């Protein structure tokens, strides 16, 4: 059986503040990039919380981290993720789930997003088990207190965290 050659492009969006982007995030990015034709890593402005890194810095760190992924791009965004998805013709939103707390929150968000855009699916991905304990919040806190987070983040993020400690 021959595959149709005119299939629509499968575009997914993986959004977050990524303050900073962790190896857990990157694991989800790698998994999602294998499932979709294009993956957009949407870095949120984050009006609702104070970030350690500026939006430009978070976008730059993400771009460096995905340089080897031809079908992934990084873009900043502000506003509703469903509006961003519509603008970029995405048919899926990817969310990483580390634990039951994430699952409870993300299922509520997925249900609300389905009300806003019923044609956009939410896809939950689990990070590798040894990465499930990593969160941006813990990485920032451990780094701030002088702990070693080099196994939790990329070298570019590690350098940025070291610079932030001395600033």
Globular, elongated, flat, extended or rod-shaped: what is the shape?
globular
Share in β-strands: 15-25%
State the distance separating the first and last CA atoms. Answer: 61 Å
Oligomeric state of shown chains: single chain
Instruction: Tell me the helix content.
Output: 40-55%
Calculate Rg over CA atoms: 16 Å
Largest sheet: 5 strands, parallel
Total strands: 5
Low-confidence stretches: none
Order of the strands making up the biggest sheet: 3-2-1-4-5
- Count of discrete alpha- or pi-helical segments spanning 4 or more residues: 6
Find the structural class using helix and strand composition.
alpha/beta
Q: What order do the SSEs take from the amino end to the carboxyl end, as H and E?
A: EHEHEHEHEHH
Q: Mean pLDDT, rounded to whole units?
A: 93
Summarize the structure.
This protein is an alpha/beta fold and 167 residues long.
Protein architecture, described:
This protein has 167 residues and is of the alpha/beta class. Helices cover 41% and strands 17% of the residues. The chain is built from six helices and five strands. It has a five-stranded parallel beta sheet. β4, α4 and β5 (121-125) form a beta-alpha-beta unit. It is globular. The termini are far apart. The mean pLDDT is 93.
